[in-house]
């Protein structure tokens, strides 16, 4: 028989750190007090309104939410997830037990079961703890007597006399179930929280929770595997009994582990003291180096000061000698009193030279020494940055590497990284980035703390290069910085659109996906039927499709991917006043006679294109990018053929009347030309044969959601 006081830690709520009161079972199988669940959810709601967690935490004196839980609450509130209309309204709950964000479903707190078994155990523990405190009768006249039994049907406690009065022999009340004195009255039948009038009689093996027959017939458990409650009771009880018997049989092994853990505790204490001493010695060395540098710097300043003061003092004395009756002037006045010409000339010649020098010094006065000490300013910016990164480095913590293939730069930057050993040894990662600017000498890194291995960075400048790096932290230990990776942002704001399935869309030759982000040209049976009308020397006409949104002004950028198997694809822009001509043109635009990129040296080729082509397009296909034939283009056809980038981008500048085609992976311009932007411009695509185009999806901030591991 297990001693009640030995299981106390199993009866403590992880939120309030007190004995459970009406515990609820969360989907993650942890238990939390009913009141604590409500308080945490209301704190979560307050974070939406207040934008912070401090006021929410302080408004609830009973509950003690950890800082990590509040960080999760703030993170969820910033994610913009929808809230339902229940009270509390949020369906997301940061579990204080497993430190995860739990989805409580549409019913929220009302869909959780009370753990009556745990309530009974807590009540037995409380009775053992207050054995000396009696439970009084609820029906005695003052003074009340000590109760001897409690009725589970009446939810009240009675002394012997009151029990006989309220439960007379031969009545229905005499059949009530009674137990020893208690304050824990639980219902005799467990009811379904979703169907309040139905008792639970089955157990869902998928969701691992009791359900009623209505839940199985038409509720959320309709397609789940369920079993009868008696079978689940028998199975779970047998498993639990076997597990308990196994643990009891391994008591000696458990004691050995406890002994080993005690030794590890002592060893940890000793190693921590040794680590403190080593860290203290390291900082003492830094202090010693700084003290030496400080002393040397102060000595240099003091020496320079003494030399300068000496020079200035000598200059002061020289100028004092120029005053009347002082120094040089007084001596010269005495010489002038000499009446003997020979003696005067002998003395006055040298004196005159000194007087001339003094006169010149008055005309060009300059202090003998500088008063500023600008040469003695200590630049500690670099050292300060290095000391700011001072932390514990561990050989066991792997250096993360930024994955350039999974990372991408579009409307936002998605930076992904991984560890070479494929192990997640770090608890948290720090991602830093800064804009590359040649003019700035001191680089200021922006810092983001990340729990996972990817992060979305917003608010980056267009047409700019950024350097990114990442490091891992495990407690106070950190890894070295990863190799810096440089990404370039698009040359203009990203323009979002979908393929238009109405204007000129040929559903016989083209196939759109349901989201209208991908289009595919199938070289199937309709194409074979159409080939009967073709003559020798011309090809099948292109199938065009445009974007559903136009551009009237400004500079915009969009990107897409062309499948490698694509035979022929044309991409570009078309003005609104030429869309009708694009879809109903009688010319065969893919004929070799009129193909812009055909390579034929017809003298009228460019003139025909300029006058009759309804849109500005470039040709892609067979994993190649073909630069259009223009007077400025190379004459050699081979030099106009480039490898097709994995992702292609188009930048339209309506204000300047220019359109550019980019390698969207490195944001390098492959070709640029003028375009008539007199009307509203639409993205245009043309496909022939087997081909497919996929629009690049915008980068959005994705937050991890908790899924129960079945």
From TrEMBL:
<keyword id="KW-0479">Metal-binding</keyword>
<dbReference type="GO" id="GO:0007340">
    <property type="term" value="P:acrosome reaction"/>
</dbReference>
<dbReference type="InterPro" id="IPR027726">
    <property type="entry name" value="Trim36_HC-RING"/>
</dbReference>
<dbReference type="InterPro" id="IPR003649">
    <property type="entry name" value="Bbox_C"/>
</dbReference>
<dbReference type="InterPro" id="IPR013083">
    <property type="entry name" value="Znf_RING/FYVE/PHD"/>
</dbReference>
<keyword id="KW-0833">Ubl conjugation pathway</keyword>
<dbReference type="InterPro" id="IPR040859">
    <property type="entry name" value="Midline-1_COS"/>
</dbReference>
<dbReference type="InterPro" id="IPR001841">
    <property type="entry name" value="Znf_RING"/>
</dbReference>
<dbReference type="GO" id="GO:0004842">
    <property type="term" value="F:ubiquitin-protein transferase activity"/>
</dbReference>
<feature type="region of interest" description="Disordered">
    <location>
        <begin position="50"/>
        <end position="88"/>
    </location>
</feature>
<dbReference type="Pfam" id="PF22586">
    <property type="entry name" value="ANCHR-like_BBOX"/>
</dbReference>
<keyword id="KW-0436">Ligase</keyword>
<keyword id="KW-0206">Cytoskeleton</keyword>
<dbReference type="InterPro" id="IPR043136">
    <property type="entry name" value="B30.2/SPRY_sf"/>
</dbReference>
<dbReference type="InterPro" id="IPR017907">
    <property type="entry name" value="Znf_RING_CS"/>
</dbReference>
<dbReference type="GO" id="GO:0001669">
    <property type="term" value="C:acrosomal vesicle"/>
</dbReference>
<comment type="similarity">
    <text>Belongs to the TRIM/RBCC family.</text>
</comment>
<keyword id="KW-0493">Microtubule</keyword>
<feature type="domain" description="B box-type">
    <location>
        <begin position="187"/>
        <end position="229"/>
    </location>
</feature>
<dbReference type="InterPro" id="IPR047065">
    <property type="entry name" value="TRIM36_Bbox2_Zfn"/>
</dbReference>
<dbReference type="InterPro" id="IPR001870">
    <property type="entry name" value="B30.2/SPRY"/>
</dbReference>
<dbReference type="GO" id="GO:0016874">
    <property type="term" value="F:ligase activity"/>
</dbReference>
<dbReference type="Pfam" id="PF18568">
    <property type="entry name" value="COS"/>
</dbReference>
<dbReference type="InterPro" id="IPR027370">
    <property type="entry name" value="Znf-RING_euk"/>
</dbReference>
<feature type="coiled-coil region">
    <location>
        <begin position="258"/>
        <end position="285"/>
    </location>
</feature>
<protein>
    <submittedName>
        <fullName>TRI36 ligase</fullName>
    </submittedName>
</protein>
<dbReference type="InterPro" id="IPR035727">
    <property type="entry name" value="SPRY/PRY_TRIM36"/>
</dbReference>
<dbReference type="InterPro" id="IPR013320">
    <property type="entry name" value="ConA-like_dom_sf"/>
</dbReference>
<dbReference type="InterPro" id="IPR013783">
    <property type="entry name" value="Ig-like_fold"/>
</dbReference>
<dbReference type="Pfam" id="PF00643">
    <property type="entry name" value="zf-B_box"/>
</dbReference>
<dbReference type="GO" id="GO:0008270">
    <property type="term" value="F:zinc ion binding"/>
</dbReference>
<keyword id="KW-0863">Zinc-finger</keyword>
<dbReference type="GO" id="GO:0007051">
    <property type="term" value="P:spindle organization"/>
</dbReference>
<feature type="domain" description="COS">
    <location>
        <begin position="336"/>
        <end position="393"/>
    </location>
</feature>
<keyword id="KW-0862">Zinc</keyword>
<feature type="domain" description="Fibronectin type-III">
    <location>
        <begin position="399"/>
        <end position="492"/>
    </location>
</feature>
<dbReference type="GO" id="GO:0005874">
    <property type="term" value="C:microtubule"/>
</dbReference>
<feature type="domain" description="B30.2/SPRY">
    <location>
        <begin position="477"/>
        <end position="704"/>
    </location>
</feature>
<dbReference type="InterPro" id="IPR050617">
    <property type="entry name" value="E3_ligase_FN3/SPRY"/>
</dbReference>
<keyword id="KW-0175">Coiled coil</keyword>
<dbReference type="InterPro" id="IPR036116">
    <property type="entry name" value="FN3_sf"/>
</dbReference>
<keyword id="KW-0808">Transferase</keyword>
């Amino acid at each position: 028989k297990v001693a009640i006081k030995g299981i106390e830690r199993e009866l403590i709520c992880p939120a309030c750190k007190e004995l459970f009161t009406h515990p609820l079972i969360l989907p993650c199988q942890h238990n939390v007090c009913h009141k604590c669940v409500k308080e945490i959810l209301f704190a979560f709601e307050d974070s939406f309104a207040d934008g912070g967690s401090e006021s929410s935490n302080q408004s609830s004196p009973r509950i003690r939410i950890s800082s990590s839980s509040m960080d999760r609450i703030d993170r969820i509130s910033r994610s913009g997830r929808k809230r339902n209309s229940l009270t509390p309204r949020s369906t997301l709950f940061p579990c204080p037990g497993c430190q995860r964000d739990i989805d409580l479903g549409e019913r929220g707190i009302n869909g959780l079961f009370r753990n009556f078994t745990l309530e009974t155990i807590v009540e037995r523990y409380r009775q053992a703890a207050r054995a000396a405190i009696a439970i009084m009768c609820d029906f005695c006249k003052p003074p009340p007597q000590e109760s001897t039994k409690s009725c589970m049907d009446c939810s009240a406690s009675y002394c012997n006399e009151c029990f006989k009065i309220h439960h007379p022999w031969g009545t229905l009340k005499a059949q009530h179930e009674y137990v020893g004195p208690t304050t824990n009255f639980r219902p005799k039948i467990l009811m379904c929280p979703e169907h309040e009038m139905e008792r639970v009689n089955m157990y869902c093996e998928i969701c691992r929770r009791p359900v009623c027959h209505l839940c199985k017939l038409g509720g959320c458990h309709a397609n789940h595997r369920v079993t009868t409650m008696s079978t689940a009771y028998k199975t779970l009880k047998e498993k639990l009994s076997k597990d308990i018997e196994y643990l009891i049989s391994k008591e000696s092994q458990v004691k050995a582990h406890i002994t080993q853990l005690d030794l590890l505790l002592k060893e940890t204490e000793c190693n921590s003291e040794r680590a403190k001493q080593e860290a203290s010695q390291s900082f003492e060395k830094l202090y010693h180096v700084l003290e030496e540098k400080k002393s040397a710097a102060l000595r240099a300043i003091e020496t320079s000061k003494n030399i300068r003061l000496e020079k200035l003092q000598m200059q002061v004395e020289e100028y004092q000698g120029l005053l009347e009756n002082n120094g040089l002037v007084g001596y010269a006045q005495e010489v002038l009193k000499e009446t003997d010409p020979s003696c005067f000339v002998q003395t006055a010649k040298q004196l005159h030279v000194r007087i001339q020098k003094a006169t010149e010094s008055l005309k060009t006065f300059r202090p003998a020494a500088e008063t500023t000490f600008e040469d003695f300013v200590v630049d500690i910016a670099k050292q300060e940055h290095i000391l700011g990164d001072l932390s514990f480095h561990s050989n066991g913590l792997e250096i993360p590497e930024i994955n350039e293939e999974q990372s991408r730069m579009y409307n936002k930057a998605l930076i992904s990284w991984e560890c070479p050993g494929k192990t997640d040894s770090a608890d948290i990662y720090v991602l830093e980035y800064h804009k590359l600017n040649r003019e700035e000498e001191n680089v200021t890194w922006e810092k983001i703390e990340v729990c996972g291995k990817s992060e979305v960075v917003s608010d980056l400048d267009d047409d700019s290069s950024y350097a990114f790096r990442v490091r891992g932290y495990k407690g106070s230990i950190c890894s070295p910085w990863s190799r810096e990776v440089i990404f370039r942002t698009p040359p203009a704001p990203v323009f979002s659109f979908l393929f238009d399935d109405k204007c000129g869309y040929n559903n016989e030759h083209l196939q759109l996906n349901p989201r209208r982000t991908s289009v595919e040209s199938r070289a199937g049976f309709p194409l074979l039927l159409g080939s009967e009308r073709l003559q020798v020397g011309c090809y099948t006409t292109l199938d065009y499709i445009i974007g559903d949104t136009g551009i009237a002004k400004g500079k915009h950028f969009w990107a897409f991917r062309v499948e490698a198997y694509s035979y022929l694809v044309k991409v570009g822009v078309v003005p609104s006043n030429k869309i009708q001509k694009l879809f109903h043109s009688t010319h065969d635009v893919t004929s070799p006679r009129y193909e812009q990129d055909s390579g034929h040296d017809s003298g009228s080729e460019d003139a025909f294109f300029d006058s009759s082509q309804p849109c500005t397009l470039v040709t892609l296909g067979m994993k190649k990018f073909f630069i259009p034939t223009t007077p400025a283009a190379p004459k050699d056809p081979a030099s106009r053929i480039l490898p097709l980038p994995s992702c292609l981008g188009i930048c339209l500048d309506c204000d300047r009347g220019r359109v550019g085609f980019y390698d969207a992976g490195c944001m390098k311009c492959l070709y640029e030309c003028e375009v008539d932007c007199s009307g509203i411009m639409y993205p245009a695509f043309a496909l022939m044969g087997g081909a497919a185009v996929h629009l690049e999806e915008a980068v959005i901030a994705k937050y991890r959601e908790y899924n129960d591991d079945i």
